[in-house]
Specification:
With 138 residues, the chain is mainly alpha-helical. The chain is built from six helices and no strands. Helix 4 runs antiparallel to helix 5. It is globular.
Length: 138
């Protein structure tokens, strides 16, 4: 199956940049849809008692989590590099990038709150915490 996926992506890349950009947009859309579906479906199972204490590892835990999440924002570098190629990039880029960052922050906060609301924080230390929390709460 993995080989087939690699072959399909290779064909898309060979066909052209526009087609590969469209395929990338579709994949990102599917990922965003999965996040929204998780937030909507899992929000019904939130138990506020799971948030007490709210920051059990205090400032050290917050800084560690921030350092880990920092690396997910590296994608903004590729967006800004691609924006240099566009026409009128200076006028459009700052506003759109700020809006994108705000939406990304909101998604991260929503997933973190819902995930820790449906499952205690100390049970999420595994390779697939979202799947584990959904499995445990079902």
């Amino acid at each position: 199956m993995g080989f087939l996926v690699v072959m399909v992506l290779t064909v898309v890349l060979v066909v052209g940049i526009r087609e590969s950009a469209s395929a990338n947009n579709v994949m990102v859309g599917i990922k965003l849809l999965a996040i929204v579906v998780f937030c909507i479906a899992a929000s019904r199972y939130i138990q506020p008692s799971n948030w007490k204490p709210f920051a059990p590892n205090h400032m050290q835990g917050i800084l560690t989590g921030g350092a880990i999440v920092f690396f997910t924002y590296i994608g903004f570098d590729s967006v800004s590099t691609a924006a240099e190629e566009c026409t009128k990039s200076q006028a459009r880029f700052a506003r759109r990038n700020s809006g994108l960052a705000l939406r990304l922050h909101l998604l991260y906060v929503a997933v973190a709150l819902i995930l820790t609301g449906i499952q205690r924080w100390n049970t999420l230390g595994n390779a697939a915490p979202v799947a584990h929390a959904l499995e445990a709460s079902a």
